[in-house]
Amino acid sequence: MKSLIKKLVEIPGPSGFEEQIRAAVQREIKDHADEIKVDALGNLIARKGKKKDGGLRIMLSAHIDEIGLMVTHVDDNGFARFIGIGGINPLTCYGGRVLFMNGTRGVIGVEKLESGKLPKLAQLFIDVGASNQDNCPIGVGDVCGFERPFLELGDRLVAKSMDDRIAAVIAIEAMRAITDTPHELYFVFSVQEEVGIRGAITAAYGVDPDLGLAIDVTRSGDTPKSVKMETALGKGPAVKVRDSSFIADPRVVNWMVETAKQAGIPYQLEVLEAGGTDGRAIQLTRAGVPTGCLSIPCRYIHSPSEMVDKNDVQNAVKLLVALLSQPIKLG
Ligand code: CO
Ligand code: ZN
What we know:
Blueprint: H1 2-9, H2 19-29, E1 35-38, E2 44-48, E3 57-63, E4 68-74, E5 79-85, E6 97-100, E7 105-110, E8 124-127, E9 143-146, E10 151-153, E11 156-159, H3 162-177, E12 184-190, H4 199-207, E13 211-218, E14 238-242, H5 250-263, E15 268-271, H6 279-283, E16 291-297, E17 306-309, H7 310-325
Parallel strand pairs: 3-12, 3-13, 13-16, 14-15
Antiparallel strand pairs: 1-2, 2-12, 4-5, 4-9, 5-8, 6-7, 6-9, 7-8, 10-11, 11-17, 14-16
The structure holds cobalt (II) ion and zinc ion (ZN).
């Protein structure tokens, strides 16, 4: 699993520019799906199984896009100005390294660092080593992701795009592990989540599921003076109760909790004050779908060093396999 994580987290794929990561995921799942398609927005949708007696059409969603930057202007000296794609914080930009979709690399500079003051995004620029507009290999509209190698710190795994590639890994591992299911499973690797949960909207409409489950990272409350939050790294995957985008269906929460208890898998309950997932899009599609979310506690979300715990990842795979291998009765 570790080599798969390393492979997927290091690929750039800002929202709307997911072709490289989509191709990589497709290579990993092609022998484990009964049918694979890519919809008009670029969502990768893989079906496994056919609905049998007592089975449901279930949509799982893990987004493969990540936050990034888009060039707005290159000045006469070859410095590129940019806007954020998704939730970019200037705090985590300065000195960072970026990788453009065409392979160009760059570093992020700032006009002037004033002590005690956080620069605005508009005061930052990307330096790709060019000296004028003509020898600058990137231009208006080009996009980049942050570049950081995958890092292992004991049981903790660190990367620039754990949000949400770790969920893609969990979905892939579950897909490989599930051998027998009464359900028709649609593993969706969705696009454009970071710019407003867009890919999952069309994917959910197309799949038309009976039940939905998003898989995404969530915050943790276990770092110095962090926000008060119950979830912590290493205490198990989290069953989402609510975030600011949707309220998980209590029947789905109950099903997830009971399955975890029966299988002896540690779990935590998650109440996230601010943040959203693909669960919102699935729940609100068509006439509405019972939907929940399996979350992976993560530190430093939307920084180039997002951290998860290896045991939570493994337990998330186990829980997902247990959830999807048996008939479901939503009480
Ligand atoms: Co995110
Ligand atoms: Zn996410």
